[in-house]
Design brief:
Rossmann fold, alpha/beta, binds S-adenosylmethionine, 33% strand, globular, 16 strands, 6 helices, Immunoglobulin-like, single chain, seven-stranded mixed sheet, five-stranded mixed sheet
């Protein structure tokens, strides 16, 4: 596992209590529905608590003064965290095992050209770049791409061979195929819903069946690996995500698929499922 400075301290009653670097935070978590808190005495440690409001959004309620942003040490790279209106912080710790896997695959491959779609604040981009990859980083939100670039600078990777692109993932892949560009590896972590920069709507159930086969078309003959991760409740188990992907893709001669849950293990030893990942490597 990456040495990420993060702990899941407790979860239950639809919420999780987590330490991200210097701050303990209390956030909603559908995966904690139906579980009971094991350490209720720890919850007042939270410096801030996020509450959903009636509409789509929510609000942070701070109990103690917090910095506008603070660093999260992820071992090979560093992420700047902050409290966002959506309740996110700039890091998905359930991806830590994937960062480790990406770094290992990049080292095995030499200096691969990696495409990272839905790349957010750049954790997978930086895991790949720190291990020696050339990366094309694509996310539709220009402010999030700027955030990822700050993370690269904070990680000593400002001069690494990373192209930063604010674009719709599907449009970008279609254009790359028309241009005849190929990649050694593709990473994609699509949300259930999203928007391209020109308001194009991304809906996982409609658009992933179009995008995933194109990702394999982008892989050249000598390409090395593909990693699909999903946080959507319907595809949260390793089996359901692998079955879904295999139905979409049909037989993929020359590739071997492995699926795993993305779990976070709490201090108590309990596991919270936060989605699943399927990786394909060349046989
Ligand atoms: C679940 S986050 C990805 C998390 C990231 N892979 C990580 O582990 O840090 C989803 C990201 O997809 C982006 N996004 C949403 N719709 C998009 C689209 N149509 N094209 C490209 N990016 C999109 C969002 O801006 C957001 O950063």
């Amino acid at each position: 596992m990456s040495a990420i400075d993060y702990e899941l301290l407790d979860f239950g009653d639809g919420r999780k209590l987590e330490r991200f670097g210097q701050y303990v935070l209390d956030r909603p978590s559908p995966a904690a529905d139906g579980a009971s808190k094991r350490s209720p005495q720890r919850w007042p440690e939270a410096a801030a608590r996020y509450e959903r409001t009636a509409g789509e959004g929510g609000r942070w309620h701070s109990r103690r003064p917090l910095s506008d942003n603070w660093p999260l040490d992820c071992g090979a790279f560093q992420l700047e965290l902050k409290l966002t209106d959506a309740g996110q912080l700039g890091a998905f710790p359930e991806q830590a095992a994937n960062w480790q896997w990406i770094a290992e695959q990049v080292k095995l491959a030499g200096r691969p050209k990696v495409l990272n779609l839905f790349a957010y604040t750049g954790a997978s981009t930086l895991a790949a770049a720190a291990a020696g990859a050339e990366v094309v980083h694509v996310d539709s939100a220009a402010n999030v791409v700027a955030w990822a670039r700050r993370n690269a600078a904070a990680s000593g990777l400002a001069e690494a061979p990373i192209r930063w692109i604010a674009e719709d993932a599907l449009r970008f892949v279609e254009r790359e195929l028309r241009r005849g560009n190929q990649y050694d590896a593709v990473l994609l972590d699509p949300p259930a819903y999203g928007h391209g920069p020109k308001g194009q709507v991304w809906k996982l159930e409609l658009d992933l069946p179009r995008l995933l086969p194109l990702c394999f078309e982008l892989c050249g003959v000598g390409s090395k690996f593909v990693l699909l991760s999903c946080h959507t409740a319907e595809l949260a188990s390793a089996e359901s995500l692998r079955d879904y992907a295999e139905n979409l893709l049909g037989p993929l001669p020359g590739w071997r698929a492995t699926a795993a849950p993305m779990n976070i293990v709490a201090s108590s030893g309990a596991r919270v499922n936060c989605g699943a990942a399927v990786c394909w490597v060349r046989r």
